Amino acid sequence: MSIAQNIQRITAQLPEGVKLVAVSKFHPVERLQEAYNAGQRIFGENRAQELAAKAPQLPTDIEWHFIGHLQKNKVRMVIPWASTIQSIDSIELLQLVNKEAARINRHIKVLLQLHIAKEQTKSGFTVDEVLKVANEGSFNNLSNVIIAGVMAMATFTDDMQQVASEFELVHKTFLTLRDKLNSEAFTQISMGMSDDWHIAVQHGATLVRIGTDIFGQREY
After folding, report:
1. pLDDT tens digit string along 93-105?
2. HEC-encoded secondary structure of the chain
């Protein structure tokens, strides 16, 4: 199947209100252009250098989401291009993104990354941490970032019941945070990838991050 057919097949299955983020890491610009020509407008990149290299070569109406672990020394590279940073995993990173966005007079949406998986290698706030930070008011009064929701990755496992319970925890945490933050902008739940996005949608995902099912295996 072509990239266009893959996008059509996936988007036909997405309920109203759920958007597709095409995960384009390690894929060449030509393949991203194919996806764009098929109507795809939201692309997700994991690496700062790759985002900064690709974005200038592609149409300006693309909505770039940065979805990988963001090192503090790479924030300045990402800020000019990303409309959303999905992987805010600490208050320090959030404040730095706010500062750098202010420096170039941009407003950037961010998602708070939740660590709900069993693997310790995945980053993010634990549920307890994120609720504590929200109670302390540290998510308030940021001039150049808009906290738009949460992002999470489930445990890499064949046990889909475990995946479903983790996604359910994300949804519950989102609802609790929404009440605490009392912000009309807080609307997004980014979860679900090629193997588990159907389950994510059942548990309230509004953004699904799909790469392999669109572009095929990556060319490393």
Report:
1. 999 999 999 999 9
2. CCHHHHHHHHHHHCCCCCEEEEECCCCCHHHHHHHHHCCCCEEEECCHHHHHHHHHHCCCCCEEEECCCCCHHHHHHHCCCEEEEEEECCHHHHHHHHHHHHHCCCCEEEEEEECCCCCCCCCCECHHHHHHHHHHCCCCCCCCEEEEEEEECCCCCCCHHHHHHHHHHHHHHHHHHHHHHCCCCCCEEECCCCCCHHHHHHCCCCEEEECHHHHCCCCC
